[in-house]
């Protein structure tokens, strides 16, 4: 219902901010990653939002980037993860860190977030696999190897999806060069 707020930042009380939009003040809960990037009070601010209506409350959650909001939405789809827990996850780690943890199936990184136990972390990893790691973390997976990153970008420029390009990269030798890697990946994709 409310997708974006643009207005004047009146108050900053973590994790809540107050945004004045044309004389109406909206209380918005934000993850700490967004909170740290907010301008000073009295400045103009724009937040992408997610509106939650419950039996006992109407809550507005704000995000600095579309990736943060999309990750929040993926998190709250998981059974047992409510908006506050999703906010805690995004406050405890960046979207890239979460995507990397999901891709590598590292529950230990999620357990460090307050309120996340071992079972919840394992459930998060299981449910987010293929949703967050493939979509938002495909580039961070291969950031350690520039050649593989270049191959990934070339395949995506040729019209292949992140998922297809990532699958083709997994079949390549780890020390392959860019031009040879593109040739081998294209062969794998056309089979």
From TrEMBL:
Keywords: Cytoplasm, DNA damage, DNA recombination, DNA repair, DNA-binding, Hydrolase. It comes from Comamonas terrae. It is found in: Cytoplasm. HAMAP family: DNA_HJ_migration_RuvA (MF_00031). This is Holliday junction branch migration complex subunit RuvA. Residues 73-92, 108-127 form the Helix-hairpin-helix DNA-binding motif class domain. It comes from the Bacteria. Its main location: cytoplasm. The RuvA-RuvB-RuvC complex processes Holliday junction (HJ) DNA during genetic recombination and DNA repair, while the RuvA-RuvB complex plays an important role in the rescue of blocked DNA replication forks via replication fork reversal (RFR). RuvA specifically binds to HJ cruciform DNA, conferring on it an open structure. The RuvB hexamer acts as an ATP-dependent pump, pulling dsDNA into and through the RuvAB complex. HJ branch migration allows RuvC to scan DNA until it finds its consensus sequence, where it cleaves and resolves the cruciform DNA. Residues 143-191 are annotated as: Domain III. Belongs to the RuvA family. Has three domains with a flexible linker between the domains II and III and assumes an 'L' shape. Domain III is highly mobile and contacts RuvB. Pfam families: HHH_5 (PF14520), RuvA_C (PF07499), RuvA_N (PF01330). Residues 1-64 are annotated as: Domain I. SUPFAM superfamilies: DNA helicase RuvA subunit, C-terminal domain (SSF46929), Nucleic acid-binding proteins (SSF50249), RuvA domain 2-like (SSF47781). Homotetramer. Forms an RuvA(8)-RuvB(12)-Holliday junction (HJ) complex. HJ DNA is sandwiched between 2 RuvA tetramers; dsDNA enters through RuvA and exits via RuvB. An RuvB hexamer assembles on each DNA strand where it exits the tetramer. Each RuvB hexamer is contacted by two RuvA subunits (via domain III) on 2 adjacent RuvB subunits; this complex drives branch migration. In the full resolvosome a probable DNA-RuvA(4)-RuvB(12)-RuvC(2) complex forms which resolves the HJ. One of its GO terms (molecular function) is hydrolase activity.
